[in-house]
Structures are given as structure tokens and as C-alpha cells.
Amino acid sequence: MTIRAYVAIGANLGDARATVTRAMQDLDGLPRTRVASRSSLYRSAPVDADGPDFINAVVGLDTAMDAHALLAELQRLELGAGRERPYRHAPRTLDLDLLRHGDAVIDTAMLTLPHPRIAQRAFVLLPLAEIAPELVTPGQLAQVADQRIERL
């Protein structure tokens, strides 16, 4: 049995566009997982952070992995791309955030689903609305309308 999961992808160090594109391919290669949908690429200003603009996207995955196993795979891909965490909201080579895993509601030290800041981030809402419009409301989009973001 597969579950539809959504993953936000972002990068703002190195060749961010190539990194995000590569991450989409790598996600498609995860065990018992395939990319079912992918958004356009977006350029966005950092939120609560400094550094260069981010390149962002969201993918929909059909996966047979449970949420914690999928999270572990996402973290493995981040490490493989050279992700470091010197401080909160630091610039990054690759950021993969598990937004949703079906209808799961999880609140543990390692994972909170749905992701608690989905509705605060234009760089998540716009690409998510592109591939799963039923998950994003006009009110949510209005709340992030002041955040700088452009579809590439």
C-alpha cells in the first residue's frame, strides 16, 4: 500500500537550481517510492534567515515507507548533498522537509506532521498549491502574499 507524501525542497548554496533538480531525481530513486508530481522551480527570499535567495520546489511522492523511514531517507540525501547545520536557519546546500505523509498526524521529538510551518511559508504554499491545490486555501495564500517569491 502506498501513501501520498509531500516534500519541500530548497537550496541556497552552490548551484542551488541543479541541487533541487537532482534532489527530485534522487527522491524518485528512494526504496518503494516514486515521484508522482513535481512543482515548478521557484526563487524565494530567505525567511527568518540570511544568505542568498533559495531555489524551491515541492514534490508529491507515492511511497510505501512509513513517515519516520521516509524522514531518515530525506536526512540521508541532505547529508549526501553536503548539508551542514551550524546554526538554526543557516544557508544550506539542500533542505528536504517532509510536509505531509497521507493524513498522518504525528508529534514526536523527531517529526511533526503535518509540518507545523506550512501555512507560514510562500516557498512551500505556492509550489504545493501547484501540484495539490486541494491542500492550500486562498486564505493561506493571502497570508504569505508579502513574501518575495517568483516562479522560474
Name some characteristics of this structure.
single chain, Alpha-Beta Plaits, two-stranded antiparallel sheet, alpha+beta, 4 helices, 28% helix, 152 residues
Question: What can you see in these coordinates?
Answer:
The chain is α+β, with helices and mostly antiparallel strands and 152 residues long. The chain has a single domain (3-116), classed as Alpha-Beta Plaits, CATH 3.30.70. It is 28% helix and 28% strand. The protein has helices at 16-28, 67-80, 122-131, 138-143, and strands at 3-11, 33-38, 42-44, 54-63, 95-101, 106-107, 112-113, 149-151. Strands 1, 2, 3, 4, 5 and 8 form a six-stranded antiparallel β-sheet that branches. Strand 6 and strand 7 form a beta hairpin. It is globular and about 40 Å long. The termini are far apart. The mean pLDDT is 93.
Count the DSSP helices.
4
Number of strand elements: 8
Query: What proportion of the residues form beta strands (DSSP E)?
Result: 25-35%
Radius of gyration, in Å, reads 14 Å
Give the SSE order as H and E letters: EHEEEHEEEHHE
- Give the fraction of residues assigned to helices: 25-40%
First-last Cα distance: 35 Å
Uncertain ranges? none
CATH superfamily: 7,8-Dihydro-6-hydroxymethylpterin-pyrophosphokinase HPPK
* Main sheet attributes: strand count, strand direction, barrel closure: 6 strands, antiparallel
Structural class: alpha+beta
- CATH-derived topology: Alpha-Beta Plaits
**What is the domain tally?**
1
